[in-house]
Amino acid sequence: MPGLSGVHLVRYIRENFNDMEVMIITGYPSVKSTVEAIKTGAEEYLVKPFTDEELLIAVEKILEKLRMRRMATTSQKPPIVRTCRYRTRETSPKNWGYFPHRF
Questions:
Q1: What are 25-71's pLDDT values in tens digits?
Q2: In a domain, 91, yes or no
Q3: In this structure, what CATH number is given to the domain that contains residue 67?
Q4: 47 domain-assigned
């Protein structure tokens, strides 16, 4: 992102949007940036290239954390959540999926 690092964006989101989770996707990983992003509040850190399955798992973890946080703040029973399996072009005769096959 020109003029702004992902860590700065994570910090801004954490300060201004308490009910959001953050996932960083990078093509230029480093140990320093990974540690800084996680310490700043990124929930997930994916390095390109990643598989569809890795992305789906990361998103499911974030959604589960959001569900648990909302349950804790509202004292409600956990909602019934059904997750759909990802379909790729190879496994689906109609060539569809919840995410594009390749990013």
A1: 999 888 998 899 899 999 999 999 999 999 999 999 999 998 888 88
A2: no
A3: 3.40.50.2300
A4: yes
Nearest to 22 by CA among 52, 45, 1, 50: 45
Q: What is the pLDDT of residues 30-43, one digit of tens each?
A: 899 889 989 999 99
Q: Is residue 42 part of a domain?
A: yes
Whether 97 has a pLDDT exceeding 50, the answer reads: no
| Contact (CB, 8 A) for 78 and 64 | no
Domain boundaries, position 39: 6-74
Q: How confident is the model at residue 99 (pLDDT cuts 50, 70, 90)?
A: very low
For the chain, the domain total comes to 1
Cβ neighbour number for residue 10 with a 10 Å cutoff: 21
Q: What are phi and psi of 101, to 5 degrees?
A: -65, -45
Whether the link from the prior residue into 49 is cis, omega within 30° of 0, is: yes
Is residue 13 within 8 A of residue 22, CB to CB? The reply is yes
Instruction: Give the integer Cα–Cα distance in Å for 51 and 14.
Output: 27
